[in-house]
Design goal:
Mean pLDDT: 84
CATH topology: Nucleotidyltransferase, domain 5
Structural class: alpha/beta
Number of helices: 6
Helix content: 40-55%
Order of helices and strands: EEEHHHEHHEH
CATH architecture: 2-Layer Sandwich
Shape: elongated
CATH class: Alpha Beta
Number of strands: 5
Length: about 180
C-alpha cells in the first residue's frame, strides 16, 4: 500500500506522521515527535546572535551537523514506511546572510524556521514537497491516533495525504486527485 510522510516543523522538533489510505479511509502508520537538539542548542540563531560572525557560523555548522545526524537516525524507520514526503512550514524562504538573519528578532525566528525545515528536508534524502499549513483544511480530520494527536499531527497527516494522492504509482510527486479545497480525495 502506498504511504506518505508529513512533517510539521517547529523550532528544534517536528511532528512526523506516516499515513496510508485517504481521508475517507485513513490509516495512521506512525506518529512520532522528533526532537533534534537539546534545549541549550534548540534556539540556535538566538544564541548565535550573541556571538561574533565567525564564531556563530562555526557554531551553527556544528549544531546543524548534530541536528542533521539526529534527524537521519530518527527519520530512518519512518522513511522505510513512506515514499512521498511533505514538510510543513509557515512560509518559504532562505537565510540570505548571517548579519541579516540576526538583525531583528523576527528575522532570527525566520532563520530558525528555515534552518529546521532544511534539516528535515536534507535528512529525508528524497524529494520533499513544502506545504503551507494555511493551505490545509484539518477540520475534517478526526482523532485517528493515540497521543500525541493535536493540531500539528493533523496538519502533518493532511500534508502527507496530499503528497500521497499527488504522487504517481512510483512515488513521484505530481498532480493527484484533490477536492475543491485542495485536500486529497
Amino acid at each position: 500500500m502506498p504511504r506518505a510522510i508529513g512533517i510539521s516543523v517547529h523550532t528544534g522538533w517536528g511532528a512526523c506522521i506516516v499515513v496510508g489510505g485517504s481521508l475517507q479511509k485513513p490509516e495512521i502508520v506512525a506518529n512520532q515527535v522528533i526532537e533534534l537538539l537539546p534545549e541549550r542548542e534548540r534556539f540556535c540563531y538566538h544564541r548565535a546572535a550573541t556571538m561574533t560572525s565567525d564564531a556563530a557560523r562555526e557554531w551553527l555548522a556544528g549544531v546543524r551537523a548534530m541536528a542533521l545526524a539526529r534527524a537521519r537516525i530518527e527519520l530512518s524507520p519512518l522513511l522505510r514506511q513512506g515514499a512521498a514526503i511533505s514538510v510543513l512550514v509557515a512560509r518559504e524562504g532562505d537565510v540570505s546572510d548571517f548579519a541579516t538573519a540576526v538583525s531583528t528578532h523576527l528575522r532570527i525566528h525566520s532563520a530558525e524556521g528555515f534552518f529546521y525545515r532544511d534539516i528535515f528536508r536534507d535528512a529525508c534524502q528524497l524529494p520533499c514537497r513544502v506545504v503551507a499549513p494555511s493551505s490545509l483544511d484539518i477540520t475534517r480530520i478526526p482523532k485517528l491516533a493515540t497521543k500525541p494527536w493535536a493540531r500539528d499531527q493533523k496538519l502533518a497527516a493532511a500534508a502527507a495525504w496530499r503528497a500521497l494522492h499527488a504522487s504517481d504509482s512510483k512515488g513521484r510527486i505530481g498532480e493527484g486527485r484533490v477536492d475543491s479545497d485542495g485536500n486529497p480525495c
